[in-house]
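Re-running the complex after MR caught last week's input typo. The corrected sequence lines follow. Everything else is unchanged.
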Amino acid sequence: MSQPRSAPSGLDHLQDAEETKAQTERRLLTRARRVLASSTFRLALLYVLLLGGSAAILLGFIYWSTAGYMARQTDATIGAEAQGLAEQYRRRGLTGLTALVAERSARSPGGAAIYLLADEDRNPLVGNLDRWPDMEPGPDGWLDFRLRARGDTEHAARAKVFLLRGGLWLLVGRDVRELTATRALILDALTWGLAITAALALLGGWLMSAGVVRRLETINQVAREIMQGDLARRVPSDGSGDDFDQLAGNLNRMLDRIEGLMAGIRQVSDNIAHDLRTPLSRLRTRLELIRGEPPADADRAEIDAAIADAEELLATFNALLRIARIESGNRRDGFAPTDLGPLLADLVELYEPLAADKGQALVLLPAEPLEPGEPAAEPDALRVNGDRDLLFQAIANLVDNAIKYSPDQGRIEIGACREGDRISIQVADTGPGIPPEQRAKVFQRFYRLEGSRTTPGNGLGLSLVQAVAQLHGADIRLDDNQPGLRVTLILPGLRD
Amino acid sequence: MKILVIEDDRQQADYLGKALTETGAVVDQATEGREGLFLAAGNSYDLLIVDRMLPNVDGLTIVRTLRASGNQTPVLVLSALGEVDDRVEGLRAGGDDYLVKPFAFSELQARVEALLRRAQPTDIPETRLRVADLEMDLLTRQVTRAGQVIALQPREFRLLEYLMRHAGQVVTRTMLLEHVWDYHFDPQTNVIDVHISRLRSKLDKGFEQPLLVTVRGAGYMLREPGTDA
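Corrected-run output:
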């Protein structure tokens, strides 16, 4: 916000309130997104879909076999009656048919069975239906229509229509009011059944998957803590012996093994430290003592060379041990809030004369303001939680390389800026750069580019930078500076 | 000058003893922790040199025990563990300085001298430092040589101040990094040399007798001309 913070006013309060509201909304949205992405939600949804789908198929079958059965029964009854009438017509002609229709109609006045015999123009001749229905029958002769019953109510009816020889029309049907009502009742019950099943499935799925996911999350949490360097953490076991419990047990045994191996490595490196450094120390002291006695000048030069060799050997060896110990990830004791601003200024101040000796310009770029006209970055925008000496070492290694590989009269720029939660530090030189295909390899121990083998160095500088970066949860990017190399360290910044 | 060396590597201890005796100190030796603690607690030494990894009682426990009993003898901790947090742990336990093995004897000697000097109490806070015809006024922050004003950058001033406070002593590059720049780190190049040569050109240019000299294989020394290194 570009509002001056030193002058609180009503507007500011309003803005603060709006900000809080927006923040709340954002938080809710984030939470909703997280819920949608969560395994709990997905598993529950899958469970609902599976169970709901099965229930729908089952209920569909029940509907088909009950309501459908009743409809088929009705159709069969109508068919049987029609067959009876047709038999009569064939045996006794129109008179017989008329008599039978009249008799059956009389037996069922306004009742369940419907009969109607009509002439060519569908004017009723005999039967218990007062007029021919308006609807046309389907191609198979079946006709669904509304039946006007006594008291102005309408019922659903179903009938089959025949065209008799001689141009007469015969309609045989049933009042299916009860069938329809029953069918609606069944459908209703089944729909409710489906809805309840879905609701129960949702609840059950949620409970079930929440349990599963909670146990997975426990394991995840432990894994995260271990990756952050707390190797002593273990996955809690509930003693149930189920699959999750077995997984937890196996993970714990694996971690025990890893911890044992790492302790072994640490033990070995400590032993190396002690057992190898000690004779080297002795060698060095011995050489120094010899040097103190008055020897011939030629011997002295040789001894100086021997001391220098021993020193180089030790430096390499110390660097290796140092990287190994940083990588083992137990070094967060030295972490404290650290402002990179003064650290970079110190660094530039320390290395500036070295660069000046090569005619190079070593420049600390001012932190760029986010928008023109605004003040540059806030004073402690470059605060990180980290080990001050290690960060200094890492950036110093980058600057040292930049000076080493840039030509005389070259330019080395160091810049730092905050982008949201991240702080990026750039060291850009005008040297030969690193070909893209080799960029991943330069972090390997002792890896040196062709053509740089003759420059002094042990090939461990960038390995150390990487180890320090990993310890701080930082990323390293190598880019083309056109010409030269641009190294970017991206560190998690400290929030106030 | 009485110094106690507690070091389990007998050869290293002998070399240390021999070399320190040559500088005029009286040296006692202990090769394991319990004996070392016993000697340190029962005698009055000017300085203890204690290895961290010792049989029976480790070096830091010795230092802690001594400090807890009110013994303020300066302690230089030696260790093969060279990480910064090891160093911090060593200093926190009550050590006054920490030296990582292997070390150049000259580095050890420089630090021993600095520790012994520090142990001598200075009553009056100094406002002026003087080495030969070089003078530094700590209040006005003015530096003159033979009456001529020498303009220094703030860091050069601190560098010179440190050298003047340790005049006549060898000061190593690591000591300068730790005390003038306040960073514990291993430079891949000798960045300090360039700073020294800049300072030297400001101090000694036009004068016959150089004040700031390089001690081969060890570091630097600011000294009166004519005195021997």
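None of the earlier attempt is carried over here. Chain B touches chain A at residues 9, 11-12, 15-16, 18-19, 53, 80-85, 88, 100-106, 155, 181, 183-189, 191, 194-195, 198, 216-217 (CB under 8 Å). The first strand of chain B starts at residue 2 and ends at 6.
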